[in-house]
Specification:
By secondary structure, the protein is mostly helical. It has one domain. Helices cover 73% and strands 0% of the residues. The protein is built from three helices and no strands. Helix 1 packs across helix 3. It is elongated and about 45 Å long.
């Protein structure tokens, strides 16, 4: 599970950096690398979205000491 958590976190960070680039420079890195809404860019957007949904589950673990 630890490996999946790191992968999901990395994908979410990539998505966050992409949104930061869009907001600050109006530059979409995903579209630049994979094309405007190609099947590959849709996969990247889907993975970022699913990663975000997965990371929501960590809110339940906040404050829990192991």
């Amino acid at each position: 599970m630890k490996t999946i958590n790191y992968i999901v976190l990395a994908v979410a960070i990539i998505g966050a950096v992409n949104w930061g680039l869009i907001g600050i420079f109006n530059f979409n890195l995903v579209s630049f690398l994979f094309g405007q809404m190609t099947w590959l860019s849709r996969i990247v957007y889907t993975l970022v979205g699913l990663s975000g949904l997965y990371l929501i589950t960590f809110y339940g673990q906040l404050g829990v000491e192991e």
